[in-house]
Amino acid sequence: MSDNSTATFNPSSVPEEAEVRGPVKGKFKTFLAKFMKQKLAVVSSFFILLLLILAVIGPHIVPYPPNEPNYDAMMEGPSLAHWAGTDEYGRDILSRLIEGTRLTMAVSLSAVFISALAGTILGLISGYYGGWIDRLIMRGSDVMFSFPDLLLAIGIVAILGPGLSNVVIAVAVFGTPSFARIIRSVTLSAKESLYVEAARSMGAKHNRIIWKHIFPETVPSIIVNVSMRIGGAILAAASLSFLGLGAKPTEPDWGAMLSMGRDYLSIAPHIVYFPGLIIFLTVLAFNLIGDGLNDALDPKEKN
Fold first, then answer.
1. What is the 8-class DSSP label of residue 86?
2. Interaxial angle between packed helices 270-297 and 254-261, expressed in degrees from 0 to 180 and rounded to the nearest 10
3. Where are the beta strands (DSSP E) in 115-270?
4. Which pTM does this prediction carry?
5. pLDDT by residue (tens digit) across 5-56?
6. Mean pLDDT in residue range 167-189
7. pLDDT, tens only, 261-280
8. How far, CA to CA in Å, does 60 sit from each of 70, 151, 247?
9. From CA 13, how far away is CA 2, in angstroms rounded?
10. pLDDT digits over 112-152, tens only?
11. Residues 6+ away with beta carbon under 8 Å from 105
12. In angstroms, how far is CA 267 from the centroid of its own chain?
């Protein structure tokens, strides 16, 4: 029988997905190996994962109703019945901390993701097009940077009115210039790359060049900055609630719990200690994760 029916291998017939899947999988393994070497970042990741789980299932596992007062157990210290003690109304502090995890995570994550989205778009446009668009966006960012973050947030909430939704807007506004400046810097470098010049010479449209070729180069910077900004967002949201500009005093928000407990610091310090401790640990964990991601995503870092 003739062997003429044997198919000839043509490299161009290999699907594009098959060409890309290998390098992407290899990069992910390299990133994971580097990240797992960051012991503090790994431990922090498990802590944040636990908080996210509590934010989802917290209402179903709290030992006591978080908003139900018990005037027979007011300001009791930590015990087997109340592991973190009770507040001035006899409410279980541990239950309120678990319930408050959902509020805190929702506010901080929403604010950071909004600022990341807005800042990424502004940074890509500024860095790619340049000219008066770049000057306008960067000068606007400079104006925003001239205000302290918390002071700017207080001003925005004072204009919009107190409430968690306005806290999200305020925190997102002062976080946007940071993303815009970082993404602009990466875009300026990426748009001078050979593959971008090749795409431009082949007649690729601007939108395709930005989102197909330049945006993927900004993803590591976005990931690192998001992880670093969440800690600051938690502090800002807690500070606004502490000042009475965020969550209502009756809501189990960590900052509001600090504000309510400060009047009883001398006679029942546990009312303040536990909310303060969880804020400290959460912010520290996100910062450690950010450091770990920065090291793992740094191409100059050796395995």
1. B
2. 150
3. none
4. 0.84
5. 444 445 444 444 444 445 556 677 887 888 888 899 999 999 999 999 998 9
6. 92
7. 888 888 889 999 999 999 99
8. 20, 37, 22
9. 25
10. 999 999 999 999 999 999 899 999 999 999 998 888 888 88
11. 51, 52, 55
12. 36
Distance CA 41, CA 296 (A): 10
Residue with tokens 């060049």: 209
What Cα–Cα distance (Å) separates residue 185 from each residue in 23, 96, 121, 225, 284?
25, 43, 13, 13, 27
Tell me the C-alpha to C-alpha distance, in Å, between residue 292 and each of 39, 40, 45, 72, 175.
9, 8, 10, 47, 21
pLDDT of residue 81: 87
Place of tokens 């992910």: 28
Tokens representing 67 are 């908003």
What the block records as the tokens of 170 is 């305020």
Here the tokens at position 65 are 């109703």
3-state secondary structure of 74: coil
**Alpha-helical segments (H) within 74-130:** 93-129
pLDDT, tens digit, for every residue of 50-98? 999 998 998 888 889 888 888 888 888 898 988 998 988 999 999 999 9
Q: 216, 288, 224: which is closest to 27 by C-alpha?
A: 216
CA distances from 165 to 93, 144, 174, 277 (A): 24, 21, 15, 25
Give the three-class secondary structure for 213.
helix
